[in-house]
Design a protein that fits this description.
alpha+beta, 315 residues, five-stranded antiparallel β-sheet, 19% helix, globular, 15 strands
Length: 315
């Protein structure tokens, strides 16, 4: 735990100042950036592949220090870091910011995530992303900031709206405890120029009319499975696997696995509309229809059937 707070302090302290100026890279700046990128790539490779925990911690610390040093260089936002393979670097469609995220394996059953959000600007505007997921008891309804981020490896960013009213959807992966994995959609808005994670865009739980509207969408599934949760540009939808329980042996807890069917969210101006059953007729025409498949007729987003609702008095 002491390593976690030490790394957080380093990233916060080193990201307070930046350089100003127009977008120009001199020959010396390009040389310096390329050399620093090589150093970053070495540490990023080590934190993923080194077998000793203390070496992975050291690589993480040095990666943070070197990354902030690199981003302080004038107009660093425009440097693509194309050689940095073990760190996920993602941009939204409008390229107004970018997110660096990476994973540290503390042990086979414990993972920590580190990251930084850099806004597009002549001067350095950098927000350290501090993984506090282990302290957040109700992540679905938590409004969070960079200092208490739901740590994950961000693998895509979608948006709707433009300018100051834009909302961004970060797609993240969390290795969790080694037995189960998580993927989620974490909305990002900028309030007084600071990123806020979580927004009431998702449909409420139909089983509980008094439930708080979720601020992010989370899928938890068996580590033995692979699931889809991403924006499909051909369909113009966010598509994800429907998960169903699987019991391997009597007395063992059930595991959530994909059952071969798909669900979706349609991006509307101020919310996401849930599509229960997704059957693609023609991807060329981006045509979809809702059709019950695999015996899921009449079930909602939470797997509750109409019959079950009536029995429980939740019409």
């Amino acid at each position: 735990m002491r390593y976690f707070f030490f790394f957080s302090l380093i990233l916060i302290t080193l990201s307070l100042s930046g350089q100003t100026g127009k977008f120009t890279f001199s020959a010396n700046e390009k040389k310096e950036l390329s050399a620093l990128e090589d150093t970053l790539s070495f540490y990023a490779y080590s934190l993923v592949n080194d077998s000793l925990p203390e070496d992975r911690f050291y690589a993480t610390r040095e990666l943070i220090v070197t990354l902030v040093k690199t981003l302080k260089i004038k107009n660093s936002y425009y440097y693509p870091f194309s050689k940095l393979k073990s760190v996920s670097l993602q941009y939204p469609p409008d390229s107004s910011f970018r997110m660096f995220t990476w994973q540290l394996a503390v042990s086979p059953t414990e993972y920590r995530y580190y990251g930084a959000l850099q806004r597009k600007s002549d001067s350095l505007i950098l927000f350290p992303l501090i993984d506090r997921s282990f302290t957040i008891s109700q992540p679905e309804v938590a409004s969070l900031g960079p200092e208490n981020w739901m740590g994950c490896l961000v693998y895509g960013i979608q948006q709707f709206g433009v300018g100051d009213s834009a909302t961004y959807l970060a797609f993240g992966y969390d290795a969790n405890d080694g037995k189960t994995r998580k993927k989620w959609i974490d909305p990002i808005r900028f309030v007084r120029n600071k990123p806020v994670f979580g927004a009431p865009l998702f449909p409420p739980n139909p089983k509980d009319s008094s439930a708080t509207i979720p601020l992010r969408f989370i899928l938890s599934y068996s580590a033995e499975s692979t699931i889809k949760l991403n924006y499909d540009s051909e369909l113009g939808l966010i598509v994800f696997d429907h998960l169903a329980p699987l019991v391997l042996k009597a007395g063992q807890p059930e595991e959530m696995v994909p059952d071969g069917s798909y669900e979706a969210f349609k991006i509307l101006p101020n919310k996401l509309e849930y599509i229960e059953m997704l059957t693609v007729i023609s991807t060329d025409e981006e045509t979809i229809r809702q059709k019950p498949i695999l015996g899921r007729e009449g079930k909602d987003l939470f797997g509750k059937s109409s019959l079950e609702k009536k029995k429980n008095g939740n019409n």
